[in-house]
Amino acid sequence: MSNYTGYRCPVCGKAFQQEDDVVVCPDCGTPHHRACYHSLGHCVHEDRHSDGQQWSPEPADPDPAPSQATILCPRCASHNPAGNIFCQVCGHQLTAGQVPGAPGPAPAPEGQQGYRRADQEPVIPDIMPGPAALPQWFLRNIFSELEEGPELCPGVSRRDVCDYVGPNSFIFLMRFQQLLEPGVHLSINWSAFLFSFFYCFYRKMYRVGVALLGVILLALVPVFSAAVPLCGELLAEYGTLTVDAFAIINSPSFQQFDRAFSFFTMVVLLVSAFCGVFFNKLYCRRVLRDIRATQEKGHFSSGSPEYHYALAHRGGVNTNAVLVAVCTLLVLYILAGVGLSYQFM
Predict the structure, then answer these.
(1) CA 20 to 30 Å from 173, out of 29, 123, 148, 162?
(2) CA gap 192, 271 in Å, rounded
(3) Is the whole-model pTM more than 0.70?
């Protein structure tokens, strides 16, 4: 591998590093990243093999300089690498109205950090800021250390996870890192606990969301079954279905309804607890599985802009799915009320 260090892969254009996995075409001797060669399916110079072309080394880049191009987040004004789709601090989408590759503003002169001209975007210094900018400074520096660290797991980088998760990727990256440690199987997610299956739909965990919604709907069946004789008894004795009538009645039908409603409440709490405790684990498996599937089935090299856009499109969030779930529950509630009223017409 050391013979190719500094030369560039003809597929992705990146310079080979000492630790890169490199394969060489047996016909022309052209080196490729192994992932690039597998994604392309053949040598990049395959059409020239019949002419007897052989790879000739060009001057190597002894120490390729990292790109200084950045994208400024319109929400929190933090600078992100040009290839990022979401802000690495606040999770805001960077593609809308942004020009990838545009260089960031020049740093402020020494001794004037925090000051800027009227035509410049605000510059966030790397030194400890004031109290107002402290949360942003803290998140930016901590996130940079996480994203630039080693792979989250074999074949999946931290940036892949951030591109897939989208909003709040910083939080999920820390949770996934904990869950992948030996002996750790549980992680609390308060959003999933509070919003239950709605949060599953929001994070595109459709199968889990449908299953939990089905459990809750099944638990509602005994409630409506017990409500029919109770409402009939109230109408026969009091002629109305008021709250006062429910408060004073004490009959076997009311006790049956009370047990059914208590059972329904317990099921709702259990579903919320399940989401709060196990959602992060299920979501971590889903994220890693989808990233690997994108790497294996995608018609682009891993690490290319198309690859990161594909991850963002496959993952992210879906507010429309939440609206569909809410509308479905409202329709079922209306139909159940109409059906209950039809029993006493």
Answers:
(1) 123
(2) 10
(3) no
